[in-house]
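note to self: dont lose this again. the chain is below, predicted strucutre after it. 323 aa total, dont forget to put it in the shared folder this time
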Amino acid sequence: EGTHKSATISEAAMNIAGNEASGIISLAQNELGKIRLDGTIAFSNIDASQQLAWIVPASETNSPIAAAREIDIDLRASFDAIKLGIVELAKVAAAISMKADTWVFDIGYSEALGGTIISKIGERVEDEKRQAFLELTARDLDATALSALTGNELLRVAGKTDIDANLRTNKLESGLLFEGLNGQFDTRITAGAFGGFDLAKLLKKPGNSEQQPRANNTIAQGATRFDEFYIGTFLNKGVASISQSAIKSGDVEIRLIGDINFINNGIALRAQQVTAEGPQQERLFIGGTIFNPLISLQDGPTKRPTANTTADEPDRSSANHSN
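---
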């Protein structure tokens, strides 16, 4: 049914980028000739990985999203399952909106990795600059399944994971997203463990040596078990600075400070154990890169480590790297 300026299809069958969908849609034209599309659509199982790639060049005039800006869109969508890159979401309830310089894919509910995810991803203009953003709230994720997505064998984690993130970037070009990444990223894992290394054991001072480098193969021994692990990070231009952290197991707590550089994969972290008697003197420095960490044990306070230098040029003022 419809008029000369609007039309509604109550039993629509659609094929959107190769994916079958059905629902109710309405098309209308305003006084200025702008088309408005709204409605409710349902998908079964789809792979939206290619559509996710549109986000990167979204500001380019020849991108699908840029072309769609000629239409105002307000859709409610459901998906039995949707694949977004390396992540697959199930039982998804979402809203898709687009108007002028803003578009948003708002996931009100989804299930993934044993838990639930609420997320909002999109683009907006702030201070006359186009900005991509991601807001994420995840609860009760399986840390083992989550860490497996990284493909890094050193990042073996178990436990239930909660994540809260609010990130943005002005660098929309392919390959530059991390360089402009800013915002907060907080993670809490309960009743779990880090496989491959035992921080408490590494923090025990060997003999009477005031400083003892640890070989890389030390990392591969034991596991760091904990009741709760919390880490709060602030990202600035691709560098994550740890603002708060605690690894708690019984009455023992290990605290971390330092940086992780996602541009060059450099890490510069310092771990210190805190017991009922207070902070322990020994501090463990973890340097090198995410894929090839280097460890040394040091006495006494030193200034905050930084990962702003490259992996080939470590911050020697704050750490001694093992060879």
